[in-house]
Every structure is written in structure tokens, then in C-alpha cells.
């Protein structure tokens, strides 16, 4: 499995309590803004909403990959959240979403943004990975699973 270098232990949310798509995006934007100094929560949220207006980032099998580019971001940033309950997200297959991977990229990222998006999608489509994500005992185990590190390295 490929390693997600743009994911950190602090950007793993093992149990997100949100009941609607907009609430999920708001919570992810708030959490991202806390980890990305100089970025505004509202700007992140509006970027995600704007992308969702083009079409849902719910790719099916209970997974969504909201993403966007931001002018003041200087690196790729990833965040994964496991929802405590599947939530309507207008996914392609009509299923509720319970695994969300946020991907933010610098405005000038070009192909790097698309490569990172493809990498996340590829990992989330690996046989058995979604079951392991859903069954991970905590944030450290979830981080270790997505980065090929041991849980002790994640702590």
C-alpha cells in the first residue's frame, strides 16, 4: 500500500459526530484550520462547498473525499474522519458515508493535487481496507493503517 505522506497523527478523527453533509464539511474545515496556521476556517469551508456544488465527492462504498485548493496553503494536507453513523452525502451509489478523507492543496499544486487525490482513492479501494478503517480501535491505529507505520510510531 502507498504511504500517505500528507497525513499526520493529529489529522485523524476516529469518531466524528455529524448528522449532515454540511455539518461534516464545517467540522472538517474547523479542524483543518486549527492545524493550518494562517488559513481561515470559513475559507476552507467555502472552498469545500464550492467543490460539492460541482458534484458530490461521495465516491461510493460509504466513502467521501472532499477536496479543494487554497491560495495560502503551502503543502498538501490530508485529514481522515470516521463518522460514528453513516450520513447522507449524495454519494454516487446513494449510500450513506462513514469514512471521509479531506484533501487540501496549494492553489498552484497542479498535477500534485490530482496525484494525491488518485492516491487516496486507490488506497481506499484496496480490498479489505474499508473494513479495517471501520474496525480500527482508535486514531493511532487508523493513522498507522493509512500510513504503513506501527501504532506506536503514531502515538
TrEMBL record:
Gene3D superfamilies: Mannitol-specific EII, Chain A. Signal peptide: none annotated. Residues 5-149 form the PTS EIIA type-2 domain. CDD domains: PTS_IIA_fru. It holds the Pfam family PTS_EIIA_2. The gene is ptsN_1. SUPFAM superfamilies: Phoshotransferase/anion transport protein (SSF55804). It comes from the Bacteria. PROSITE patterns: PTS_EIIA_TYPE_2, PTS_EIIA_TYPE_2_HIS. This is Nitrogen regulatory protein. Coiled coil: none annotated. NCBIfam families: nitro_reg_IIA.
Amino acid at each position: 500500500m502507498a504511504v500517505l505522506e500528507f497525513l499526520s497523527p493529529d489529522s485523524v478523527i476516529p469518531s466524528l459526530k455529524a448528522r449532515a453533509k454540511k455539518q461534516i464539511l464545517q467540522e472538517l474545515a474547523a479542524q483543518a484550520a486549527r492545524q493550518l496556521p494562517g488559513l481561515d476556517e470559513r475559507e476552507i469551508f467555502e472552498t469545500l462547498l464550492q467543490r460539492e456544488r460541482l458534484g458530490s465527492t461521495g465516491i461510493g462504498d460509504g466513502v467521501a473525499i472532499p477536496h479543494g485548493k487554497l491560495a495560502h496553503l503551502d503543502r498538501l494536507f490530508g485529514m481522515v474522519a470516521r463518522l460514528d453513523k453513516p450520513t447522507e452525502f449524495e454519494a454516487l451509489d446513494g449510500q450513506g458515508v462513514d469514512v471521509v478523507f479531506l484533501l487540501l492543496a496549494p492553489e498552484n499544486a497542479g498535477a500534485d493535487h490530482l496525484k494525491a487525490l488518485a492516491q487516496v482513492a486507490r488506497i481506499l479501494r484496496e480490498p479489505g481496507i474499508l473494513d479495517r478503517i471501520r474496525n480500527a480501535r482508535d486514531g493511532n491505529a487508523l493513522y498507522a493503517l493509512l500510513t504503513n507505520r506501527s501504532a506506536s510510531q503514531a502515538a
